[in-house]
Amino acid sequence: MKLISWNVNGIRAVLKKGFAEWFAEVNPDILCLQETKAKEEQVELTLEFAGYHPYWCSAEKPGYSGTLILSREKPISVSYGLGIEEHDNEGRVITAEYESFYLVTVYTPNSKNGLLRIDYRVEWDRDFLTHVKNLEKTKPVVFCGDLNVCHQEVDLARPAANRNNAGFSPMERKGFDNIVDAGFIDTFRHFYPDTKDAYSWWSYRAGARGKNIGWRLDYFCISESIKKDLKSAAIMADVMGSDHCPVSIEIF
Q1: One of 125, 146, 155, 186 is an active-site residue; which one?
Q2: Catalytic residue among 107, 186, 199, 218
Q3: CATH of residue 157
Q4: How many domains does the chain have?
Q5: What is the residue range of 193's domain?
Q6: pTM metric for this prediction
Q7: In this structure, which long-range contacts are made by residues 165-171, counting pairs with CB atoms below 8 Å and at least 24 apart in sequence?
Q8: Which pLDDT does position 174 carry in this prediction?
Q9: Does the annotation mark 146 as catalytic?
């Protein structure tokens, strides 16, 4: 199975930039999108998406956040959010159950400039980890998305300058430590533990993408029990259309 995750920074915008043609070319079994910024009724998916089952989770606030799963196989069940009211009005989580695993896509809240939302972010990280660990009691879990954190210094171009900024603060990095300590595997680092200059997000400012001054904010993480089934993991840095690029795994 080929699974791809991408923060598209607006699905209506990316559809005008060759997204459908790219989708047909890569032909994933499952595509997970974050920051769709739209409701289902606002988007017309073209023929390239025929044969896929769409599952939308949109924010109450128009043009904000949102997630989407496009799955070739119809899941056994699909649920939305974390089941916690304060978390579930921004369209950030979709959980799809398949025969042998759960798939969760997530758009983790940004802590904002000056870490204004860091207390909420710490709470979110705790509750999201509880969600995937509860799922894991039944079946292995694959979760993916924009986690809005660089775990290690190797995951961003300028760690020293960003040590207390959103996405690289000690509190957020501790949140990812907790994911690893709970037994989940960062699939990209599983294959490439020391690889530098491998990023999935670049600021639109100062030509950052052309200079590869970036951050690795997008992940696939899997349960330890299915590590043996993991075939590959990749960052698709050549794919344009958003300030993020897609990330992918092949598994089972």
Answers
A1: 146
A2: 107
A3: 3.60.10.10
A4: 1
A5: 2-251
A6: 0.98
A7: 165/115, 166/110, 166/111, 166/112, 166/113, 166/115, 166/118, 167/110, 167/111, 167/215, 167/217, 168/215, 169/111, 169/115, 169/118, 171/115, 171/118, 171/121, 171/122
A8: 98
A9: yes
